[in-house]
Every structure is written in C-alpha cells, then in structure tokens.
Specification:
Elements (H helix, E strand, L loop, with lengths): L1 E2 L6 H8 L12 E4 L6 H5 L5 E4 L4 H12 L4 E4 L10 H10 L4 E3 L2 E3 L4 H19 L10 E4 H7 L10 H12 L2 E3 L5 E3 L2 H6 L1 H16 L14
Parallel strand pairs: 1-2, 2-3, 5-8, 6-9
Antiparallel strand pairs: 4-7, 5-7
C-alpha cells in the first residue's frame, strides 16, 4: 500500500485488510510511505507488518519497493483510501492457485455522490468490455499477481507519469492468464477526481489507453514485450 499524508483514510483501509476471510498469519501487510508529514506512519504501524520508506519514484515505484520487501509468492496491491471486501485476499489466492498470473477487478466510489457513481460505472463498463476482448488493464488499487512473474517482466514502469498500472496488465497478459473478476470490487475514494476534475482525469486515462492499444511506446520499449 503506497501512502503519502493519508492519516484520514489509512486506518479504515488497514482495518479491512486485517479482517479477511483467511487467517491473519497467512499474509503480511506492507505500507510504503513516501515521506508523510502527518500521522500516517504512526497509524500504519498499529496494523501493518512492515512500514518502509519509499526509495523509488512515483506510485508504481512505491509498489515496486513493497514487492521487494514482501516474503510471499502472491502480491496484492491497493491504495490507502481504498476499502477491500472480506473475501478479497481469499478469492485472489484461489485464482492464482488455479493458474492465473494475475487478478484484478473494478472500483466503486466510497462516496455516494451521483457524479462519482456515474464516473466509476462508466469505467467499469469500459474495463469489462475490454476484458471480454482479451485486453485487461489492472487498476493499482485492485490488482494481484505472482511475484516471480512480476519480477521477471520488469515490475511497474516508473517512467510513466500515469497509466503505469494499466500498462502492467498489458505486459502481464503476455506472461500468462490474467483474470478480470467483475465481482471483485474495491471501494475507493473519489476525492482525487473531485480535486483534479472528472473530465480531466478521464481524458488522461483515455489518452493513455489509446496509446497502449495502438502499441505506441511509452517509456522504455522493453516494457511492451517479453525479452
């Protein structure tokens, strides 16, 4: 879980992660903090197994740091302002055990604002449609994968200013089966959309999707093929 000044939401996130349907001693929680100035790390230490300082660039870099520190063979990623269901880790583990290289699902807003509901509903329709066509992008707040495959393929591309999580799904699919489960829902805060503007965020996402679907290079070329 990447964090930066998330004292208002991190406890809620971690409480849901500590109350999963599989025993707590069968998984570890790692928080990667990007230099928070508030009480984020103090709160995180009450629940997480490890709270480490971020060394790499960007949100993708924070997730890379977390993977390096992880003991497990299966990695699941989410955000500090997200709420995961109690069956989240168990269902992810089952998919991986059945042979999947990666697993992901949709996001719904925690807030009950109409604009947020419509926005995330539209995103779910797009992602579900793309998944049916075999094109799966993996939102970073609701993604899991085998650690060995992730390391082999080069991890998150930290050169991307956005869409690094979606781009990861395109590469991961080249390495094995990726499952998109429309019922594996994670609830997320729409506060960033409110701050930046829904249309602006949607434009940036669609721009990134088009570039990925067209095969145009973003960052290093090696991120688009298995070497």
């Amino acid at each position: 879980i990447p964090t930066y000044n998330e004292e208002e939401s991190i406890e809620r996130c971690l409480k849901h992660l500590t109350n999963q349907s599989i025993p707590r001693d069968e998984y570890e929680i790692i928080v990667v903090d990007g230099g928070s100035k508030d009480a984020t790390t103090e709160i995180a230490k009450r629940y997480a197994d490890k709270v480490i300082e971020q060394k790499s660039r960007g949100v993708g870099g924070a997730r890379n740091d977390g993977v390096r520190a992880a003991k497990g063979d299966i990695i699941a990623t989410t955000d500090a302002d997200a709420v995961v269901p109690p069956f989240w880790l168990e269902r992810i583990r089952n998919y991986i055990k059945e042979g999947a290289a990666g697993v992901c699902g949709p996001n719904y807003p925690v807030e009950k604002k109409l604009k947020a509901i419509l926005f995330y509903g539209h995103i779910k329709v797009v992602h579900t449609s793309l998944a049916k066509m075999g094109m799966i992008g993996m939102p970073g707040n609701n993604t899991a994968f085998r650690k060995d495959i992730f390391l082999e393929m080069g991890m998150y591309n930290t050169e991307l200013p956005y869409m690094d999580d979606i781009e990861l799904g395109f590469r991961l699919k080249r390495m094995g089966k990726v499952v998109y489960d429309p019922n594996l829902i994670v609830w997320v805060s729409a506060r960033r959309m409110e701050e930046k503007g829904y249309l602006r965020v949607l434009f940036l996402w669609l721009k990134g999707d088009v570039r990925l679907l067209s095969g145009r290079s973003i960052g290093k070329a090696r991120y688009f093929r298995k070497e």
